[in-house]
Specification:
The structure holds 3 protein chains of 3 kinds. By secondary structure, chain A is of the alpha/beta class. Chain A has 14 helices and 11 strands. Chain A is globular and about 60 Å long. Chain B has 2 domains: about 45 residues, no CATH class; about 200 residues, MetI-like (MetI-like fold, Orthogonal Bundle). The chains are: A alpha/beta, B mainly alpha, C mainly alpha. Chains in contact: A-B, A-C, B-C.
């Protein structure tokens, strides 16, 4: 008998794709902080609903491609994604409107989060500010324009155009130069002229944190969600408040069309937006709350994008503008900046 | 050349080749929070942390599974193929050889993408199965080559003698050939194991919810945190590979076969 | 040789069929994507479009340049090291050879990871540069072609040394001393004696290193980043960022063709030198 054990193990491993008979909800999320999410959201939800959560992670293009590829027979029931990615999926007819009456905490959400892309196709669950993190012992930052200035040359990193932070940086540089809103052509050319002064174009906030902790870079634009990485460093990092203001973004929840699992998906959305979960997620310093009832200590708030005053002051880039121009931006960027 | 020149050249080359690992080992032993060298104080906390990261445990198990069973599967079909290519006058032997060797030539990242798009998706294959198949295919050329070279060293007339003396062909194979190429098979297994375990590019696209090989998991861990635990894990894996190879070298002169 | 062909085929076919079906067929389909126009007809438009982008051109030439540089440098270092190794006494030869092979057994993730620490502004290379007064301030090494070059060289140099050592072991032991006694300079010994006798090893090593450098993903991804793209990192970006499978297929074909051509060119050079 023992000689068959490897074969048994083999066949078991190859066929083990879940024989579970219980209800199953498949969601697609950003890959960061999964351990913290498990504790704050997934585990309590599974216990509450008596169902199984299947979590798909990956970068947003991968995840969007998957939703698109399986449109006829959706694998993903619900996803969290950036607002412009959500709009692009909605325009392809891959989403269904969200019945907000099924979300008990809906009225507690900041107005900007209630219907961010129109037609109730998405609901915002977190906000983030985006500004410049810098070494206050070496430089000071007054304006977004400082990023391309003399004093940072050779020590600055910018987010890559392909990520969510890239267009936000373009928007703020454009604003600093007094360009027409949404017209980023001249801004990209300007970055191209300074390409040699830029250490690299980072694609992940962790990559930037490493570069800054290694003193490879002394200033760069980044989302507030990454601030805790910098705050805990022994180096003196500061969060800039440039005269043009801070940029802002929002991540949203979406429901795929015809997934047949709406009931469970609403349960999760409802739970995720509840004051209880939003508070827990905020206190774990993962995502800043979109629910206005969430109260956190000053210490926690310091790490987040928290409070109506701050959220209402953010410069938001219209998702429709991003979708309409992204290909052109990437094209120009590839030819003028990366070369 | 003087002895001094010889040792200078070798010393410089080996420093370049091996020095970085010593740095990884030490960087993993840092007491600080960020990856750095020289380390900010010494501590084994990152080495300890490696064992507490749940995803590392799962992906280590998957990588082990793929390296062991993928290599065994490759040997299962590779040994007969190597034997046939060595001992039979096959029509189209060159074609068969080329097909079997192809996975070495095609860049891994293309393999992963191709299998994802035209094997996993249309046939609705699980990611684990796809990884298993890919790793088997990637290891197969090494299995065939190493087993072939040890068959080459074994004279065919021994089997013929066995057959003349009344063995069936199968008996001749199991009683005469197999015991004599045991060393080659073990060498092929180790080479296949190490190749599969360290494989990155083909596995890059082949990952699913909770299913990732260890090197890919390390890369995605680095995307999230850049603490020294990846250095510690790298060092531990390096020790593991080296220990396996060293043991194999001691036991059977592994490098003769590679 | 056994003559029963049916039996032989039955033994060899599982491996061949397996590789063919689960490996060559998917790869073949992927490569054919770029040859199809939207109408389904055969077309080279994918290639024309790809090469009309300045970024793609520069990535192509950078990849070619780095591949040649890495292969060339590893040949130079490889000859020096291999010559030293074969002339060592047997026991230390085995040990040193073992140390050269050792890096190949270690995960490329670990092998590349180290360079982040070494080449950074606060890393040891910069400590030495500043310490020696070669530069006042630490210089930028990460995310440059130099960093990618160093990483690739370290990754693939062992393959060159192994190929050259096995080639040199076949040179009769007294040939080099004989040439020296007869008055040949080291330069002449190398070009007249060693090179002609080891060129097969050089072709194998050169192909392995060049192919390795072209198909490496982790090293350009980690040490080059988004500013120093190579074909493999560009391919990954085409798939995972822009969802552009035609370009991915074009790049795949280019890489395969480059690897094959490298082998042919090297063989050609080796046979001309005869």
């Amino acid at each position: 008998m023992t000689k068959y054990i490897p074969i048994l193990a083999l066949s078991a491993a190859l066929t083990a794709t879940g024989a579970a008979a219980q209800d199953k909800l498949t969601i697609s999320v950003y890959s960061f902080a999964q351990d913290a999410y498990k504790e704050a959201l997934y585990d309590p939800f599974e216990e509450m609903c008596g169902c199984e959560l299947v979590i798909e992670t990956g970068n947003s293009v991968e995840r969007m491609a998957k939703i698109e590829a399986n449109a006829a027979d959706p694998v993903i029931d619900m996803a969290v994604i950036s607002s412009h990615d959500a709009l692009s999926l909605a325009r392809k007819g891959l989403l269904q409107p969200i019945d907000t009456s099924k979300l008990q905490s809906f009225d507690k959400l900041y107005p900007a989060a209630q219907d961010p892309i129109g037609d109730s196709m998405a609901v915002g669950y977190t906000f983030y500010a985006s500004s410049i993190v810098y070494r206050e012992d070496l430089v000071s930052i007054e304006s977004w324009n400082d990023l391309l200035g003399e004093k940072l040359a050779g020590n600055v990193s910018l987010p890559n155009i392909t990520g969510t932070q890239g267009p936000l940086t373009l928007m703020m540089l454009n604003k600093a130069e007094g360009g027409a809103p949404g017209e980023f052509g001249a801004t990209i050319s300007e970055i191209g002229k300074h390409a040699d002064d830029i250490v690299t174009f980072y694609s992940r906030s962790s990559e930037l944190a490493q570069l800054m902790n290694q003193e490879e870079v002394i200033a760069a634009p980044v989302g507030r969600f990454a601030w805790s990485r910098f705050k805990s460093s022994p180096l003196p990092f500061a969060w800039a408040d440039p005269k043009e203001g801070q940029a802002g973004g929002m991540n949203v929840m979406i429901m795929t069309a015809n997934n047949g699992n709406e009931e469970l998906a609403y349960k999760l959305m409802d739970y995720w937006l509840s004051t209880e979960v939003q508070t827990r997620v905020a206190e774990a310093l993962i995502d800043s709350p979109a629910n206005m009832d969430v109260k956190v200590s000053d210490e926690v708030a310091e790490n987040l994008t928290y409070g109506a005053e701050l959220i209402n002051s953010l410069n938001i880039l219209d998702p429709a503008v991003i979708i309409a121009n992204r290909d052109a931006w990437v094209n120009q960027w590839n030819n003028e900046v990366i070369r | 050349m003087s002895r001094l020149t010889v040792w200078l050249i070798l010393g410089a080359t080996l420093t370049f080749l091996i020095g970085p690992f010593l740095i990884v080992i030490l960087a993993g032993a840092s007491a600080g929070e960020a990856l750095s060298f020289p380390p900010q104080g010494l501590s084994l906390k990152w080495y300890a942390k490696v064992f507490t990261v749940e995803s590392f445990r799962a992906s280590f198990a998957l990588s082990m599974f793929l390296a062991i069973f993928g290599t065994l599967a490759a040997l299962l079909i590779g040994i007969p193929a190597a034997y046939a290519l060595n001992r039979y006058d096959l029509p189209g032997a060159e074609t068969i050889r080329t097909i079997v060797a192809a996975p070495i030539i095609v860049p891994g990242i293309i393999v992963g993408l191709a299998l994802l798009r035209y094997f996993v998706v249309p046939l609705d294959v699980t990611i684990t199965m796809a990884l298993f198949v890919t790793h088997t295919a990637l290891v197969l050329p090494y299995a065939v080559r190493v087993v072939s070279s040890s068959l080459n060293n074994l004279r065919a007339d021994m089997e013929e003698a066995a057959v003349i003396l009344g063995c069936t062909r199968l008996q001749a194979f199991t009683k005469v050939v197999l015991p004599n190429i045991r060393g080659g098979i073990l060498a092929a297994f180790i080479l296949g194991f190490v190749t599969s375990f360290n494989e990155v590019p083909a596995s890059l696209f082949l990952s699913g919810p909770g299913v990732r090989t260890l090197p890919i998991d390390m890369l995605s861990y680095m995307e999230i945190t850049f603490d020294p635990s990846v250095a510690a894990l790298s060092a531990l894996l390096a020790f593991m590979s080296v220990a396996i190879v060293f043991a194999a070298e001691r036991l059977l002169g592994f490098s003769r076969y590679v | 040789m056994f003559l029963n062909r049916a039996e032989g085929l039955a033994l060899a076919l599982p491996a061949a069929l397996f590789t063919f079906l689960v490996f060559l067929v998917p790869v073949g389909i992927l490569l054919s994507v770029a040859f199809q126009a939207e109408s389904g007809a055969w077309s080279l438009q994918g290639y024309v479009d790809f090469f009309s982008e300045p970024l793609n051109q520069s990535v192509f030439f950078r990849t070619l340049k780095l591949g040649i540089l890495v292969a060339g440098t590893s040949a130079v270092i490889g000859y020096a090291a291999a010559f030293c190794i074969v002339n060592l006494p047997a026991t230390s030869r085995g040990r040193i050879f073992g140390l050269v092979v050792l890096p190949l057994m270690i995960s490329p993730v670990a092998r590349t990871y180290a360079w982040i620490v070494i080449l950074g502004r606060t890393g040891i290379v910069n400590d030495v540069i500043v310490g020696l007064g070669l530069s006042e301030l630490p210089i930028r090494l990460l995310f440059t072609e130099t960093a990618v070059f160093i990483g690739l060289l370290q990754l693939f140099l062992p393959l060159m040394i192994i190929s050259l050592v096995s080639a040199m072991e076949n040179i009769p032991r007294d040939v080099v001393p004989a040439a020296r006694v007869l008055g040949a300079s080291w330069f002449q010994v190398f070009f007249r004696v060693i090179l002609p006798l080891t060129k097969e090893g050089l072709v194998i090593g050169g192909t392995l290193v060049f192919t390795g450098a072209l198909t490496a993903y982790i090293t350009p991804a980690i040490l080059g980043g988004s500013k120093v793209l190579m074909l493999e990192t560009l391919l990954y970006q085409k798939v995972n960022v822009s969802n552009d499978f035609v370009s991915a297929s074009v790049i795949a074909m280019i890489v395969i063709v480059m690897c094959f051509s490298a082998n042919l060119v090297l063989k050609r050079i080796a046979s001309v030198r005869r």
